UniProtKB/TrEMBL annotation:
<dbReference type="InterPro" id="IPR036397">
    <property type="entry name" value="RNaseH_sf"/>
</dbReference>
<dbReference type="GO" id="GO:0003676">
    <property type="term" value="F:nucleic acid binding"/>
</dbReference>
<dbReference type="InterPro" id="IPR003165">
    <property type="entry name" value="Piwi"/>
</dbReference>
<protein>
    <recommendedName>
        <fullName>Piwi domain-containing protein</fullName>
    </recommendedName>
</protein>
<dbReference type="Pfam" id="PF02171">
    <property type="entry name" value="Piwi"/>
</dbReference>
<feature type="domain" description="Piwi">
    <location>
        <begin position="1"/>
        <end position="124"/>
    </location>
</feature>
<dbReference type="InterPro" id="IPR012337">
    <property type="entry name" value="RNaseH-like_sf"/>
</dbReference>
Length: 124
């Protein structure tokens, strides 16, 4: 077995048991004022589309990740949803009710916000 292979296995095991493989040092020592001083959640999102040869019934796939630890911002959770084929705007990002502007009843953003609050004890 090569050392690179064993290192890769060790990194995966460490993550599975709740460890951290990397830390953003500037965030930990407080050198990122907007992140270090205020509970902050960082989001990332993307949509993948089926290739032309995959048939007309294949959906596009939307994914949203969000940081779940603060101030380290190194642990991310991901959510994945199928959506209409070749739709670039993420359909499950927010699920709004008829309760006026700003009312969000669900969606991937709300799920990530609840998870962040449970994980950190802070509202971002």
């Amino acid at each position: 077995m090569k050392p690179q292979y064993l290192t890769n296995i060790a990194l995966k095991i460490n993550m599975k048991v709740g460890g951290r493989n990397t830390v953003l040092l500037d965030a930990v020592v407080g050198n990122l004022p907007r992140v270090s001083n205020t509970p902050t959640i960082i989001f990332g999102a993307d949509v993948s589309h089926p290739h032309h040869g995959e048939g007309r019934s294949s959906p596009s796939i939307a994914a949203v990740v969000a940081s779940q630890d603060w101030p380290e911002v190194t642990n991310y959770a991901g959510l994945v949803r199928p959506q209409a084929r070749h739709e670039e705007i993420i359909q499950g990002l927010f699920n709004e009710n008829d309760c006026g502007s700003g009312c969000i009843s669900g969606g991937m953003i709300k799920e990530h916000l609840i998870s962040f609050m449970r994980s950190t004890g802070h509202i971002p």
